[in-house]
Amino acid sequence: MATVRLAENARVAEADYGLPGWVYRDDDAFEAERVRIFRRSWQIICHISDIPKPGDWQSLIVMHEPIVAVRGNDGAVRAFANVCRHRGARILDGASGCARKLICPYHAWTYELDGRLSGVPMRADYPALDPREHSLVEYHVEIWRGFVFVAIERPPASVADMMVPHEAEVAHYRFEDMRAIGRVTERPRPANWKNISENYSDGLHIPVAHPGLKRVFGPNYAVGTSEWVDRLGGPLVADPRESASERAYRTMLPEVAYLQADRQRTWVYFKLWPNTALDIYPDQIDFMQFLPLSPGETMIREIAYAIPDDRREMKAARYLNWRINRQVSREDSGLVERVQRGMQSASFERGPLGESEVCLRQFAKRIREIMPEARNLSAPPPGWGRA
Predict the structure, then answer these.
(1) What gap in Å lies between CA 233 and CA 108, rounded to an integer?
(2) Average pLDDT over residues 224-248
(3) Do residues 337 and 191 touch, judged by C-beta distance below 8 A?
(4) What does the DSSP 8-state code read for residue 136?
(5) Does residue 135 contact residue 85 with C-beta atoms inside 8 Å?
(6) Which of 19, 215, 219, 328 has the fewest beta carbons closer than 10 A?
(7) Across-strand partners of 70?
(8) How far, in Å, are 111, 198, 371, 375 from residue 367 at the CA level?
């Protein structure tokens, strides 16, 4: 009986604490996350409008895995490893393009848009080669409301299933009809991806570190979580201390015909497990992706999409939105760097989590389930992440 009570107390104590500091800086933890999390999670690549024609493609590298999503001649969107089956050379260079065939620049092995190997120079020199066994390695694809998600190994839940608790809310925004209104930007940050992901779902720092957002939301900023998705945000308010950009955005933003009245002045953010965020505004949406580069460095990848709208007021509102959120981004950059530096210290074991920090609790819980080593206050012996 005493043993059971002790185990229950340990579980309660674990739920009341965040992850230990070592998992934000450890090479083996980074490797374990590559295999256990990022190979088995959905990664957003682009919107279907970004690859409208046969041969259009967009690429992405996630934890050293090069991925390309391409529109086939049959109209289907497929995803492959951007790696030739001959000698492993990268096939396509850059972030996007269009190609009639996928041709390796090393030895000119040629693949069709559906991944089939169709051309091998000096074919007779490979008597045992069966082209059917050397198609490009194909990955899982899900198109959710117009956005193309790819996974190397099938994740435990579809994007649609992950978003079920919020489907009625996002349905109003017509994601499928949106088009890019900018370009993909990439911003390196000297912080572990978990640090950035948790910062994005941390509601307690808003009134302390983001005075602009505090003015924009007033007391309306709400934080909640479901099994796979965090939801944050709320309706905007007028504040006598608001900046010129904040006031201009709130007053100039025109009515959006397809949105309900309570959506006309609401900002809401969704963070999908493990590293993708959708920022939804009346005037546009952004996606952000936290791509791990090393235990202490992450690339933030983002782009904005919107329903085409040439009204001057809408163009002004989108510019003002950008100005407000760039300031928030600068503030967050300083915060995550500050936290990462602190977590380099052996003095930091782990920090307590309040009952209101529901998103951080859920995130830590899932990391510990996938990576039980994160239950330890100190790192296991070197090499554990590669076992």
Answers:
(1) 51
(2) 96
(3) yes
(4) P
(5) yes
(6) 219
(7) 57, 78
(8) 38, 12, 6, 9
The three-state (H, E, C) secondary structure of 274-288, written as one string: CCEEEEECCCCEEEE
Asked whether the whole model's pTM tops 0.85, one would answer yes
* Token code pair at residue 138: 């194909």
| Tokens 């390196």, located at residue | 188
Q: Write down the pLDDT at residue 386.
A: 86
- Report the pLDDT value the prediction gives residue 11, as an integer from 0 to 100: 58
Average pLDDT on 203-227 reads 96
Alpha helices in the chain (DSSP H): 2-15, 27-36, 159-162, 167-170, 193-200, 206-209, 211-217, 244-252, 312-343, 358-370
Does residue 68 contact residue 57 with C-beta atoms inside 8 Å? yes
Three-state DSSP at 141 gives: strand
User: Tokens representing 339?
Assistant: 């936290």
Cis peptide before 282 (omega within 30 of 0): no
Q: Please name which of 43, 42, 307 lies closest in space to residue 176, comparing C-alpha atoms.
A: 307
Which residues is 103 bridged to in the sheet? 110
Residue 369 CB-density burial (10 A; 0-12 exposed, 13-18 middle, 19+ buried)? exposed
Q: What is the pLDDT of residue 34?
A: 97
The answer to whether residue 47 scores a pLDDT higher than 70 is yes
Q: How many residues does the chain have?
A: 387
